Inverse folding.
């Protein structure tokens, strides 16, 4: 009987090491291919799908009024993040909103050495979660991705975020875009 128990124990130990070794070998190529894919610029934003409801990035790219925002999202390296499942809510300034900024501001923020500042501003326009227009109530505040809060005001049937009117709301496959007429600056 002792011999059977010893044999069983040896088989269990052998099986454990075999499984562990097999798992390590299986994960290694996957991790390497994930790193290579990221380095090659392959990500969620590169998925070609003409059937599904478009995501936040796809809607923004298709808007002639958001070319500056799209350029900023690309420069900030956030295209894949905002293409993922989310849900996200993006307060999306129009091109006209960016034109209200002091001359040279946008160009300066698009420079590689200003990427951290650009990302901070873009994250201030992004909320993790899906904020439908009917959710907004006067006096609410929402913590944005960068940790700062935006304030909601409702007055005369119009909704404002930090004093900027929400001009339109668009439902996407991974959240909402609320079009605004100003660039929100974190304080």
């Amino acid at each position: 009987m002792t011999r059977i128990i010893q044999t069983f124990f040896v088989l269990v130990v052998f099986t454990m090491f075999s499984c562990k070794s097999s798992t390590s070998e299986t994960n290694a190529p996957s991790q390497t291919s994930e790193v290579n894919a990221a380095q090659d610029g392959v990500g969620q934003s590169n998925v070609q799908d003409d059937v599904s409801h478009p995501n936040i990035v796809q809607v923004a790219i298709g808007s002639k009024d958001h070319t500056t925002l799209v350029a900023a999202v690309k420069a900030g390296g956030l295209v894949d993040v905002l293409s993922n499942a989310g849900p996200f809510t993006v307060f999306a300034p129009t091109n006209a909103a960016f034109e209200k900024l002091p001359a040279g501001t946008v160009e300066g923020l698009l420079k590689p050495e200003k990427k951290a500042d650009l990302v901070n501003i873009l994250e201030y326009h992004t909320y993790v979660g899906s904020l439908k227009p009917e959710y907004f109530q006067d006096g609410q505040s929402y913590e944005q991705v960068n940790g700062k809060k935006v304030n909601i005001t409702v007055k005369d049937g119009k909704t404002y975020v930090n004093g900027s009117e929400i001009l339109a709301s668009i439902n996407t496959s991974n959240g909402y875009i609320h079009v605004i007429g100003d660039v929100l600056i974190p304080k």
Observations:
- Helices lie at 2-39, 56-61, 67-75, 79-83, 95-99, 105-109, 115-124.
- The chain is about 40% helix and 20% strand.
- The chain has a mean pLDDT of 80.
